[in-house]
Amino acid sequence: MARSLKKGPYVDEGLLKKIEGKKPQTAAPITTWARRSQIAPEMVGFKFAVHNGKTHIEVLVSEDMVGHRLGEFSPSKKFVRHGGKMQKEMEQKAKESEIASAQAAKAAADVAGKKK
């Protein structure tokens, strides 16, 4: 649900204090746990280390990110892959074709080396 226009955007006060008076190019990454904080125009150019529940992920804020939340750029869930029997078969076929192409390339290089 969207935040009321009367209230305005939520920007964590602690973040604004941390960037106050600093230059974006020289500042070290700013560590934060405030994933819900919206990105304000003053934050553009700064690096934030946003906590994802396990580690801090560095996020370089650009102009396109203004209005979004910091947590959107620090994923908290890791996609492993879709599994199952079909997936394993597809991976096995891909590995076999890669090996076959490498062997063919090696054979072609051997033949070219013998002609010289």
Give an account of the 3D structure.
The chain is an alpha+beta fold and 116 residues long. It folds into 2 domains: 13-73, 2-Layer Sandwich (30s Ribosomal Protein S19, Chain A), CATH 3.30.860; 80-110. Helices cover 33% and strands 11% of the residues. The protein is built from 2 helices and 3 strands; from the N terminus they run αβββα. The protein has helices spanning 13-19, 85-115, and strands at 30-32, 47-51, 56-60. Strands 1-2-3 form a 3-stranded mixed β-sheet, with helices on one face. A hairpin with a 4-residue loop joins strand 2 and strand 3 (56-60). The N and C termini lie far apart (72 Å). The mean pLDDT is 89.
Strand content: 5-15%
Tally of discrete structural domains: 2
Please report the total strand number as a whole number: 3
Mean pLDDT: 89
CATH architecture of the largest domain: 2-Layer Sandwich
Layout: helices, strands, pairs:
Elements: H1 13-19, E1 30-32, E2 47-51, E3 56-60, H2 85-115
Quick recap:
It contains two helices and three strands. The chain is of the alpha+beta class and 116 residues long. Strands 1-2-3 form a three-stranded mixed beta sheet, with helices on one face.
Describe the structure using short key phrases.
116 residues, alpha+beta, 30s Ribosomal Protein S19, Chain A, 3-stranded mixed β-sheet, 2 helices, 3 strands, 11% strand, elongated
